[in-house]
Amino acid sequence: MNQAKGKRLRPELLIKVVGALFFIYLFFGWMLIPCWNTLTSIFTTTNAAGETDPWAVIRFFFAGNMAKYVWNSLKLAVCLVITVNVVGISIVVLTEYFDIRGARILRLGYMTTLIYSGVALVTGYLFLYDSDGILTNLLVNAFPGLSPNWFSGFKAVLFTMTFACTSNHILFLRNAIRSIDYNTVEAARNMGAKPFSVLMKVVFPTLLPTLFSLTIMTFITGLCAMSAPQLLGYDSINPEIVRLAGSSTADESFPQARAALLSIILATFTIILLTILSSYERKGHYLSVSKTKTKLQKQKITNPVANVIAHIYAYALFIIYMVPVVMILIFSFQTYSAIRMKKIDLSNWTLVNFFGTEDYQYLTSRGTYKTRTNSISGVFSNEATIAGIKTSFLLSAIAALLACVIVVVACNYIFKNRNKKRGMVLEYSLLFPWLLPTILICYSYRIFFNSTSVWYVGNTNLYYAENVRILIILAYTVTKLPFSLRMIKAAFYAIDEELEDAARNLGASGLTTFLRVKLPIILPSVLAVFALNFNALFTEYEMSATFSSTYGTTYSMVIQSMCQDEGLFGYNVNASGRRCASTVFIMIVSGVILFLVYGVGGQDLSERLALKEKRQKWIERIKKKVHKTSENAA
């Protein structure tokens, strides 16, 4: 009997030992040691005489222009907190709290930032506001004194990121405001309070925890901004780190140590902000509500002047959100000449920006015309864009899957040991990447694994040639572990402990119980997390730029570089058209994933059964009509 019991325990014990060793390897090998190497590199720099000078980088920081990048990032982060909160709160309040005509249409316009972001969004704004952009040309013609280069620098970055970063308000603040108990609002109205007074004194206090979290997220986003500052010409920390990471001592003084110092500064700000957030959450900001909660009803704006102003403001924001989307969509079906001239030709539509190729004829320096065969190509007919799509799809899918698998196994262990220190240690180890900015983790990987002296990866240079793809996958996976843990851990709370007890009483092992009982329950949430991770990584630019390599060129990097040498010597023609089509393609992919997660995946069992029954009835009606038509024909 004891021998049988011992045999039954051996596989599970082996799995536990292997799992423990793997998580130790993951934490120390891929989180702690590379980042610690970055920190120590600041104090191991050498001077011109070859002597170690621990304070050389610090002195350079105060003597050079490195402080400018920190100040610029801080200024952007502080200003974004104000502008994003103003716009984000207003669009949610206008569509969810006040009774505004066309709220559903407005909401769809405000939600466009959920389906395209990063490089795709910035290039969309550049298409309109760049020196030769559509709206810039109109403004210059209307105001001759206006500089064509007006949309650049701090103002351009602030404007672009203000509307790009309201997606978190759409996701989180919208849910918070819809969960408000209407009884409290109605009680305030019955006491004679006006709609705006109720909003300020009753509604906003219940939203403070959510608003505080959104403020922290916005501040960190502005502090760690990458694509917008780089494309719009604003000196901030992240683009400078990427630039220094690709530099050498032959070009400038100790670039690697300077990049490390800027990364540590970012990490310090992030840790301070997360500490403040955790302290605030522990205070427990709650508001008592009635026992019978009532769904929030939209409030009418009784003041006619205020009502008109609110409608004008709502639709002005709608135009700002929608104009880039509409213009990119239209120009993705325009010819090369129309896109080059930034003029819409409604009489001539084409699919060449997506599929197929065309010849390109250009005038040479000798005054003769030369034809470049198939030089104009679409997204799915161009080798660079196809390679970028394949690379991003493969790397993102593998990383999203790895993150989900690791977290599912970890959550199962954490819940089994929820009252033990080892469960808590594992949880906080997986949350460790949240303490550090993404750029610091990626920069640490690039420097630390760009050698053959790291024994625990087999002394292999992971930054060399095709190995960089492995490095990108691991960076993607590590940075997505905290988010995956928070989401999947919430799904584990839905598992009834009685189900586990029943399986155990029937003789099922722990592994069998996990695979046949727990996993089917949490699988929808796991798939949702996989989809969201994939969606974020597919258009990711910051990490890809850090690992800039011929073998690791992702889709976002291809989009970013499309127009740099457009048409030069007859090559790379129609890059602007492919850029527009690429943005549309990203919108479609992101839209489908969001629909599957928040549309189909967000429905409960009763809603799914009702839709299934409705589809069956519709199919039966179609069958009857087809059968009746065939009988009449016979």
Give an overview in words.
With 634 residues, this protein is mainly alpha-helical. 68% of the residues lie in helices and 3% in strands. The protein is built from 25 helices and two strands. The chain has helices at residues 2-41, 56-63, 66-96, 103-110, 118-129, 134-142, 153-164, 167-178, 182-190, 195-223, 227-232, 237-245, 255-282, 304-331, 336-341, 383-416, 421-430, 438-448, 467-492, 497-505, 510-538, 542-546, 555-561, 575-600, 605-633, and strands at residues 357-363, 369-377. Strands 1-2 form a two-stranded antiparallel sheet. A hairpin with a 5-residue loop joins β1 (357-363) and β2. α16 (383-416) packs across α19 (467-492), α18 packs antiparallel against α19 (467-492) and α19 packs across α21 (510-538).
Helices and strands, with pairings:
Elements: H1 2-41, H2 56-63, H3 66-96, H4 103-110, H5 118-129, H6 134-142, H7 153-164, H8 167-178, H9 182-190, H10 195-223, H11 227-232, H12 237-245, H13 255-282, H14 304-331, H15 336-341, E1 357-363, E2 369-377, H16 383-416, H17 421-430, H18 438-448, H19 467-492, H20 497-505, H21 510-538, H22 542-546, H23 555-561, H24 575-600, H25 605-633
Antiparallel strand pairs: 1-2
Helix pairs in contact: 1-18, 3-4, 3-7, 3-8, 3-10, 4-14, 5-14, 5-23, 5-24, 8-10, 9-10, 10-13, 12-13, 12-18, 13-18, 16-17, 16-19, 16-21, 16-23, 18-19, 19-21, 20-21, 21-24
